[in-house]
């Protein structure tokens, strides 16, 4: 069983790998594959517009070989500092388009993808591929986040909404929920939570969380959810990613996009 850590920039390598290592601690025998996709327009089979965009990108971010060297250096530095007794980590570098490469590398033995929420083109393409095309849960990590003294995701918050996408996300998160010492199921009451009893929205009968009902305010749902998770001291927030109106929400916004914008802790997302 593998965790696929997609590396999309040198500065965020520690965040992606720290998160992958914590996630691996909940999976017996898990290993981590650090994946770097070198998006080089000289070796791409893509539309001419995409190739032109990548060439313009070089003016802002540097040539692909320079970016690749920086990512590899950051990986080597992280490896030199980690506990040798932790889950084994292997390096893999492929050349190609980000979207197609992430989809191809998310093989059946991949239990989870981790990805830093960088602001570059590679991260955006990898995020879309991971959520919509791999069928795997995604651990999305703020680029400046670090595991620090954590040995695992001990306290997990769950954004509880009366929605099938949310229930699927909870089921996908079951291995990490079972390993947690505390689970806080946060229900921001409003029109999306039609059930008066939050327990009826929880799909795992063998795991019982602490149910917390948060009254609605003028604050956006995502901000309210993140603020409550932070107040409780959660290490990780589980949420559904894009429901039945996925294309509209991806393009124009919604709770998922709000979460991506405001979250300061790792998000475990499933579509």
UniProtKB/TrEMBL annotation:
Listed name of the protein: Universal stress protein family protein
Signal peptide location: 1-19
Domain of life: Bacteria
Keywords: Signal
Organism of provenance: Pseudoxanthobacter soli DSM 19599
SUPFAM superfamilies in alphabetical order: Adenine nucleotide alpha hydrolases-like (SSF52402)
């Amino acid at each position: 069983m593998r965790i696929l850590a997609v590396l999309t920039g040198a500065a965020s390598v520690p965040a992606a790998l720290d998160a992958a290592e914590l996630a691996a601690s909940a999976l017996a025998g898990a290993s981590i594959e650090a994946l770097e996709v070198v998006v080089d327009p000289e070796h791409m089979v893509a539309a001419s517009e995409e190739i032109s965009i990548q060439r313009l990108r070089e003016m802002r971010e540097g040539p692909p070989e320079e970016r690749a060297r920086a990512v590899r250096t950051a990986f080597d530095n992280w490896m030199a500092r980690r506990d040798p007794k932790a889950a084994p980590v292997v390096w893999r570098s492929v050349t190609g388009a980000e979207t197609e490469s992430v989809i191809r590398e998310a093989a059946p033995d991949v239990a989870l993808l981790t990805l830093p929420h960088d602001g570059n083109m590679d991260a955006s393409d990898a995020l879309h591929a991971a959520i919509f095309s791999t069928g795997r849960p995604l651990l999305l990590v703020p680029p400046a986040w670090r595991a620090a003294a954590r040995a695992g995701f001990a306290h997990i918050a769950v954004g509880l909404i009366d929605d099938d996408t949310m229930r699927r996300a909870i089921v996908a998160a079951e291995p990490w929920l079972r390993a947690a010492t505390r689970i806080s199921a946060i229900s921001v009451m409003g029109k999306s939570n039609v059930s008066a009893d939050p327990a009826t929205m929880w799909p795992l009968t063998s795991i019982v969380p602490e149910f917390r009902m948060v009254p609605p305010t003028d604050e956006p749902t995502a901000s309210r959810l993140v603020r409550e998770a932070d107040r409780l001291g959660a290490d990780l927030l589980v949420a559904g990613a894009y429901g039945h109106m996925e294309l509209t929400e991806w393009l124009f916004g919604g709770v998922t996009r709000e979460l991506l914008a405001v979250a300061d802790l790792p998000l475990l997302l499933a579509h």
